Amino acid sequence: MDPGKLSYRITIQEKQFVEDKKTGIESKKWAAISRPWAKVQDIGGNEFFSSAKENNKIKTKFQIRYRKGLREDMRVIFNGKEYDITFIDYFDYNKKFMNLICECVK
Prior knowledge:
The chain contains no helices and 8 strands. The chain has strands at residues 8-9, 11-19, 26-34, 37-50, 53-65, 75-78, 81-89, 97-105. A hairpin with a 7-residue loop joins strand 7 (81-89) and strand 8. The protein has a single domain (3-105), classed as Bacteriophage SPP1 head-tail adaptor protein (Thrombin, subunit H). It has an 8-stranded antiparallel sheet, with no helix packed on it.
């Protein structure tokens, strides 16, 4: 993998639970944990109907430098869109690069 091809800045977010100090109610929020450079490649998509409307699900691969601690319950923000991480490919387990396989529903 040529590091020069990592030409797009993405944001990786994780879910955090925050307790409201006044009410004691926990709520979910997304917090940025990293902003790596990535190679971005759309790898497929399909259309489906939900709530009487047509939706598109796009699969995208984000290739980044290896980073510890990423999980499939995190998400990627790219060009203002949210991509759920569905699979993490550790790229031959050499700990240099990794692929984040993600889905975005439009």
